[in-house]
Amino acid sequence: MPDTPPLGRRERKKAATRQAIADAALELFLEHGFERVSVRDIAERADVSTTTLFAHFPSKEALVFDREAEVETALTAAVRERPAGQGVVEALRAHALTSWVRMASDPRRDRFTALVDRTPALREYWERMWMRHAGALSAVIAEELGREADDLACSALARFVLEVPALATVRDDPRASVETVFDLLIHGWQSSQLGAGDATTDPRKV
């Protein structure tokens, strides 16, 4: 992966302001709930104007998912910039192990998840964001494999992979959980270590 050029002073200042706004918003949302916090409250906590706030975030919901663009960029880069000879699924496994496993150790994770779950506007935003990420990942997988942009297998793979954080980060051992999910993806249900009895399960019930 090519080195990222260092940010200039102006870009560093903008990034710091953006992070301060996002941090202030999350603190307030976790303290008081999404609906009870206004944009003005957030601007005051971050010591910026509401104009500055909206220059960084297009909506109140976007304040909660402040890493949306960064997450999608890293996800697609994991596929597009993978080492020579590495398969797409293995590249996504490596990305999950280095990026998503860290999510489980964030002390705010449970409260953040609860905030989104109990707030309809945030759930709707998250679902739209998830679909955008799935579309972007599917497109880059198809491009890398030389398939049509709407290839069904690529779309299915993208959606499966994007379920990994929700499945793995709530387990006692997130790293082992990521490995288990990707082993299942690579080797398939019948080949996975599910016990002798599962190998003869009626596939219509799987």
Describe this structure in words.
The protein is mainly α and 206 residues long. The chain folds into two domains: 9-63, Homeodomain-like (Arc Repressor Mutant, subunit A, Orthogonal Bundle); 68-189, Tetracycline Repressor, domain 2 (Orthogonal Bundle). The chain has helices at residues 9-32, 39-46, 50-56, 68-80, 88-100, 109-117, 120-145, 152-162, 164-168, 174-187. The two termini are 39 Å apart.
The level of helicity is 55-70%
Largest sheet: none
- Ends apart, CA distance between termini: 39 Å
Overall mean pLDDT stands at 88
Q: Determine Rg (CA atoms, Å).
A: 20 Å
CATH architecture of the largest domain: Orthogonal Bundle
What are the low-pLDDT stretches, counting only 5+ consecutive residues below 50?
Answer: 196-206
**CATH fold name of the largest domain, please?**
Tetracycline Repressor, domain 2
Number of strands: 0
Determine and state the CATH class of the largest domain. Answer: Mainly Alpha
Q: Give the ordered list of helices and strands.
A: HHHHHHHHHH
Q: How many helices? A: 10
By CATH, the superfamily of the largest domain comes out as Tetracycline Repressor, domain 2
Using the alpha-carbon principal axes, give the shape: globular
The structural class is mainly alpha
Query: Beta-strand level of the residues, as a percent range?
Result: under 5%
Number of domains: 2
